[in-house]
Structures are given as C-alpha cells and as structure tokens.
C-alpha cells in the first residue's frame, strides 16, 4: 500500500503515519519525489482496515494498493527515475554509463593498462572480478584480496570508480572496503542473505539477472536490497539460458524495456556475457542502448587471447575504442546523453 501525503503535509504528519505503522509491525519507507511524497507500506500482513484508517490521518491525501508483488522497486511507489551515484558517476535518469574492464583482475600490469585505455576511450567506470564464480573449480577463480588492492590502485591512477563482485555474505565487509559498487553475480541473484548483507552496506549494488530468473524474480531480489533501506540498486540484464546454442546466452532485450517500465531503478545491459562472443558485443551493446538501457557493462582485455577468463567475449582496446562513438551516436539518436 502507498500512503500519498498532501502537498502541504508536515514532518509531524509523516512521523505520525510512520509511528502508527510501527505499532502494526509494518515498515514505512518514505519516498520524497519531485511530484509527491509517499510512504510505501510493506510487511507480511497489512490489516484490511489500515487503508481507511490512514486516510483519516492529518496530511494524508489518499492511499493506493500496490498491485505488484515487489513494492519499493515499483514505479507505482516512485514514478520518476532513480539516479544512483557511484562515487560521483550518476547512473540512470537519461545518461548512458559505460562500465568496462576485464572479466578478472589478473595482474597489476593488466588492470592498470586496461583502466587507462578504457578511460582514454571514455568509459565512466572500471569493472574487474577479484572473486570469480566459475562453472569449473579447476579454472582461474580470481586473485581475491590482492585483486581488490589492484583495483583500488587502478582507481587511484585513473579516477574511475570500481565495481567488483562479492560472492558470499562473509566477504561483504572486505569487498566493501575497496569497491565503489558491489556486484551480485547472476548465480547469486537469489542468495537472499547476500542481498540483505549488501543492502545493509548502503552502497551501490549492481544486481545481475539470474540465468533462469523471471523479470519478476529479478525485481523481487532488488526488493530484498531496498527493504534494508538501501535504494542504490542498478539492475543488469546479462542474457538468459534458452534452447539456443549459437551464443553463450540469449540477450533478453525485452527484459530491459519491461524492467524500465516496471521499476524506477536504472537498468543496464551486459552484452559480453549475453552473447559470449566478442564480435557480437558491438551490435548488442548498441541494441541495448536503443532498447532503453541506462548503460552497458563490457569486458575489455588488453590481450583477449591470453585472458585467464572470458577472453572469447572480451573486446580488445581498439574494438572498445571504436565502439564508444557508436554508443554515443545511438544515445544521441534517442535523446540521451553520453
Ligand atoms: C562477470 O561479470 O564476470 C560475471 C561472472 O557475470 P555473471 O554473474 O553475469 O555471469
Ligand atoms: Mn566474465
């Protein structure tokens, strides 16, 4: 349920609403938007008489039932786009973010060189995995804390904010000490303890869609983070598993457009994992922007043939640099900045 406050309502009016909700063991999440101030009411059971009761409170304009199972992520609660600030880089609200970097941090030389070339080409953030979820236990699983230190060094040298994956609730404190945005990988989209733990940090969270997750399940996972009082969630479509074998995954651009309609959160796309092939990254990156994505996350490696993970889907610096003006052109064609 949403309690819509009158334009002239006071802080005391809002507090009275929040206080009453607390008495019912419900949570009230205050959203102050450009157009209206609302209190989104969430909890296991909302008493049937609550709507009427709330409508009698001073400063309350009315109430509306939230029809979707997810509440705080819904556009019903907040019609305008949320803009997530990642160390000064704003994602959502009309601009197009480009996050670029290797699948895994492999060495000082590799990450610093990548950071320099992607920044030079106009990337707004650096990605790189230090803790890697790999399908086989015998493949490279990341440098761990050393990888985080190298990312922090790359940030120091280039000024780019860094995004990196955290795989377990126990690692959240450690990764949060280095990262500017915490990535929740596709395989962990429904790790609810992890979602709550990153929610408690208050830091920006990049939430990838699970390999077989419906859009509704994906949005409900975002709800877990926001329910902890952390509204800084960016959704990422990264391809889903289908019957098709010609590509690693199937980029679901429907999901970008559907999510943009249903939620106020920024939505970005990952055509590297979505296609699995470097030569398909460009067309799908451009298509993602055209479909309304607030940005893309792209794997870039200085020498893809020698990458320790996902080399086949990584752009080399030249191809990345050639793609950037095309992203700007598509963004411009649909009235978005770059
Ligand atoms: C990654 O970004 O390198 C990654 C492992 O992505 P995903 O969780 O989408 O597979
Ligand atoms: Mn990867």
What kind of sheet is the major sheet? 8 strands, parallel
What's the number of extended β-strand segments? 14
Mean pLDDT: 97
Distance between the termini: 37 Å
Shape: elongated
Percentage of residues in helical conformation: 25-40%
Number of helices: 11
Low-confidence stretches: none
Strand arrangement within the widest β-sheet reads: 13-12-11-10-9-8-7-14
Can you write the helix and strand succession as a string? EHEEHEEEEHEHEHEHEHEHEHHEH
- Proportion of residues in β-strands: 15-25%
The radius of gyration over CA amounts to 21 Å
Bound molecules: phosphoenolpyruvate, manganese (II) ion
Q: Decide which structural class fits the backbone.
A: alpha/beta
Structure description:
With 338 residues, this protein is α/β, with parallel strands linked by helices. The protein contains eleven helices and 14 strands. It has helices spanning 11-23, 50-55, 108-121, 145-158, 172-178, 192-201, 215-226, 253-262, 271-275, 278-290, 317-333; strands spanning 2-5, 27-32, 37-42, 60-64, 84-86, 89-91, 97-101, 125-127, 162-165, 181-184, 205-208, 233-237, 267-269, 295-299. The protein has an eight-stranded parallel beta sheet. Strands 2-3-1-4 form a four-stranded antiparallel beta sheet. Strands 5-6 form a two-stranded antiparallel sheet. The longest helix has 17 residues, at 317-333.
């Amino acid at each position: 349920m949403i309690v819509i406050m009158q334009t002239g309502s006071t802080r005391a009016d809002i507090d009275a609403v929040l206080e009453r909700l607390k008495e019912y063991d419900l949570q009230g999440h205050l959203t102050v938007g450009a157009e209206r101030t609302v209190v989104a009411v969430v909890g296991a059971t909302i008493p049937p008489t609550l709507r009427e009761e709330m409508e009698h409170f001073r400063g309350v304009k009315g109430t509306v039932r939230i029809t979707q199972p997810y509440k705080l992520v819904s556009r019903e609660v907040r019609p305008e786009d949320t803009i997530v600030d990642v160390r000064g880089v704003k994602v959502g609200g009309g601009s197009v973010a480009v996050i670029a970097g290797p699948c895994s941090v492999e060495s000082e030389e590799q990450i610093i060189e990548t950071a320099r070339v992607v920044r030079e080409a106009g990337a707004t953030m650096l990605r790189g995995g230090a803790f890697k979820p790999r399908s086989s236990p015998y493949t490279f699983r990341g440098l761990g804390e050393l990888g985080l230190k190298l990312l922090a060094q790359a940030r120091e040298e280039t000024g780019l904010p860094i995004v990196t994956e955290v795989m377990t609730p126990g690692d959240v404190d450690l990764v949060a000490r280095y990262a500017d945005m915490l990535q929740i990988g596709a395989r962990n989209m429904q790790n609810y303890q992890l979602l709550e733990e990153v929610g408690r940090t208050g830091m920006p969270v990049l939430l990838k869609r699970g390999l077989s997750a419906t859009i509704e399940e994906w949005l409900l996972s975002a709800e877990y983070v926001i329910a902890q009082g952390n509204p800084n969630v960016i959704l990422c479509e990264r391809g889903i598993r289908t019957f098709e074998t010609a590509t690693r995954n199937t980029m679901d651009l429907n999901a970008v457009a559907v999510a943009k309609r249903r939620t106020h959160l920024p939505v970005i796309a990952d055509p590297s994992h979505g296609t699995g092939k470097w030569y398909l990254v460009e067309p799908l990156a451009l298509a993602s922007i055209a479909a309304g994505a607030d940005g893309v996350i792209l794997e870039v490696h200085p020498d893809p043939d020698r990458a320790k993970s996902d080399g086949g889907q990584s752009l080399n610096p030249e191809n990345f640099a050639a793609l950037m003006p095309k992203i700007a052109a598509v963004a411009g064609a649909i009235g978005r900045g770059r």
